[in-house]
Write a structure and sequence with these properties.
Keywords: Exonuclease, Hydrolase, Nuclease. This protein is of the alpha/beta class and 352 residues long. A seven-stranded mixed sheet has the order 7-8-9-10-11-18-19, covered by helices on one side. A six-stranded mixed sheet has the order 1-2-3-4-5-6, with no helix packed on it. The protein has a six-stranded parallel sheet with strand order 14-13-15-12-16-17. It starts with 5 loop residues before the first strand and ends in a 16-residue tail after the last helix.
């Protein structure tokens, strides 16, 4: 597969097409799976990505970069390599990259999730010869509840907190997870407010046509304000900062896949933990491999050795490739006590 895909210090490289996929460093031509900054690196000269990610990528990338966007399923030929994007189910515009060259097909999943996500297109299986899969939550302990079960739990927590006369503060990653959380909130319970970093992503989602409940940017509220009964969606780094004082009596919660790990909520010093991830869980990862049915699986990012070993024991040709320490986010990883990497990105400066 070296002619189609190989690992290099700058990341996955397609030699035949002379481009990198989600490069670790700035390169001349980057094919990007989605707008999180550990996948869409700042400083590249040319970017190719799925059309649905346009507003998010333009928000986060350098102004002088050259962009090209493709609708899902439409292909472009780069030096003889057919390249197309297919939904990954991770966040708005997230895509799997399909490469075809001389009769061989490789699929790079980027970050992906099976199942429902009201803010993006669902993951689609693609038959291929080589599948590159993440394994952020690649252990049997990680199993996600259905979307409705998760949203019902959060809304019930909000109702209970409102009835106590307190304000809810729900922490989630600024771009992607926060908008998914907002989409599931019931505005009949009370008003919804957003942290500045969350507001930027929410605006980009709305520009792309994603329907979300009404929200108010906290920074637009002047003078003293009664937040009792409200829901504030914020980034984890806001926890315990002076920014929080304006909300009065509060209850706090973290929404993260790491909340499935015993003790994660205690380490984050929050009142409640909700197991919410935009990454594939253990049973869905195995299902994805089965549906794509590749001859070879490359495992990256996360519990790589455990997943590769399991696949090998079950008859798959699987191996670990260098992930350069990527993770669901530095915020979420710190919730588990495990440093899996960073997706903090441009919004990080707005989180205090």
């Amino acid at each position: 597969m070296n002619e189609l895909l190989e690992t290099t210090p700058r990341g996955l490289y397609c030699a035949a097409g002379d481009f990198h996929i989600d490069p670790h460093q700035a390169v001349d031509r980057a094919v990007v799976t989605h707008a999180h900054t550990d996948h869409a690196r700042w400083g590249c000269r040319r970017y190719l990505a799925a059309e649905r990610s346009e507003h998010l990528l333009r928000m986060r990338m350098n102004d002088d970069a050259e962009f090209q966007f493709l609708p899902f399923g439409e292909s472009i030929k780069i030096r003889g390599v057919d390249v197309s994007f297919h939904p990954a189910g991770h966040m708005l515009g997230s895509a799997q990259v399909r490469l075809e060259y001389r009769g061989k097909v490789a699929v790079v999943t980027g970050d992906y999730k099976l199942g429902e996500n009201p803010t993006c297109e669902p993951w689609q299986p693609i038959r291929c010869d080589l599948l590159v899969t993440e394994s952020t939550f690649g252990l049997p302990v990680y199993r996600w509840d259905p979307e409705q079960t998760m949203t019902d739990s959060i809304n019930q927590w909000w109702r209970d907190t409102r009835d106590e006369g307190r304000c809810c503060v729900l922490y989630g990653y600024a771009v992607g997870k926060s908008q998914r959380l907002i989409a599931g909130l019931d505005p009949a319970i009370g008003p919804i407010y957003t942290h500045g970093a969350v507001e930027k992503g929410t605006e980009a989602y709305r520009k792309t046509g994603v329907t979300l409940p009404p929200t108010t940017y906290v920074g637009s509220v002047e003078g003293k304000h009664d937040y009792s009964g409200a829901m504030v969606v914020a980034v984890p780094s806001a926890h315990g900062t002076p920014w929080m004082r304006r909300f009065g009596r509060i209850r706090t919660a973290m929404a993260s896949g790491w909340m499935a790990v015993r003790g994660a909520r205690r380490r984050r010093s929050v009142d409640r933990g909700f197991v919410v991830s935009d990454h594939v869980d253990w049973p869905s990862l195995l299902q994805a491999v089965q549906l794509c049915d590749p001859e070879m699986v490359w495992v990256t990012h996360g519990y790589t050795a455990a997943v590769a070993r399991y696949l090998q024991e079950n008859g798959r040709d699987a191996r670990v490739i260098d992930s350069r320490g990527r993770g669901e986010s530095d915020e979420d990883a710190s919730a588990s006590g495990v440093d899996e990497g960073s997706e903090s990105g441009v919004a990080e400066g707005d989180e205090s």
